[in-house]
Fold this protein.
Amino acid sequence: MKKTPAKWAYGAAIQFQPPSRSVHTTFLHCSASDVASHDDVSVMREWHLDRGWDDVGYHYFITKQGNIQEGRPVSKVPAAQGGNNTGTIAICCHGLLIEKFTQQQYTSVRALCTAIRDAYSGKGVTMRFRGHCEVSSKTCPVYNYRQVLGLDAQGYMTGNPNPVPAPPTPPPKTPGGPVDIGMTDSGKEVVEVQTLLNRHGADLTVDGKFGQKTAAAVRAFQEQKGLPVTGSVDDKTLAALRKPPAQVPSAPPATGGGGVLKEGAKGPAVQALQRALNARGAKLTVDGHFGPNTKTAVINFQRSRGLSPDGIVGPKTKSALGLR
Ligand SMILES: [Zn+2]
């Protein structure tokens, strides 16, 4: 992964230069990923270029270590809050699960927002700070930005470091209303989407959390079905997902010759093994590499079937797993 140099390293003084376009609101986002290799603005840029945009949608990206990286130039309008981009600045913290945001990120987002506020108050503008969740049905930015920034109910900084109001709850989804399942959504709808995507050939961990991997799988599915490629699940995408796949991809031969599979093995036979273990409750990445996690899953499976738990997939384990 490229390591983009920080515009402002963690703890550095922030000299924020306001752009000449008029700005009234700063929006807070998260990357919807906790994957370490995604912890860089260059990765966000790739994701956004993949969507056909001309640059990353955010102006600033804050890594887990609290370094602030520059995204698109702040002179440009962001592409971050559909329908609410004009007059805004967009800041993204790398993260998805609330417990995985770091104190360094909180310190840096507070420092950056304070610098933005101060720069604008010099221009007679009182900057407002809002979460993406306030203008969408998403939970983005996930962390309690009101508390971190000390915001009042309207989104203005109070200078009070103490907790202010509870985080806003996303607007309830009307039953029977239009379907819109996308980034940072979580829950049983997402579980269904992930399960259906897997049935159509994706290899997602079914964790009920809609992150970048799920969005990528949705985009691939939409492309394949000739649907608008949005990365979010709308009515049409959901209907298409619920149809059984045209062709169930047949599993590749498990071993290519009836051999034994053990730690260190690679290839389609290992993928078939990982899928078979996942179908029985394991949570393996189907990468075709028989590593320690796969071995543990084999041992657990062998124990559950009264087979000798040696982590080696021989004829008995294979037949118990339904593998050839
Ligand atoms: Zn967002």
Remarks:
- Residues 29, 132, 140 surround zinc ion (CB under 6 Å).
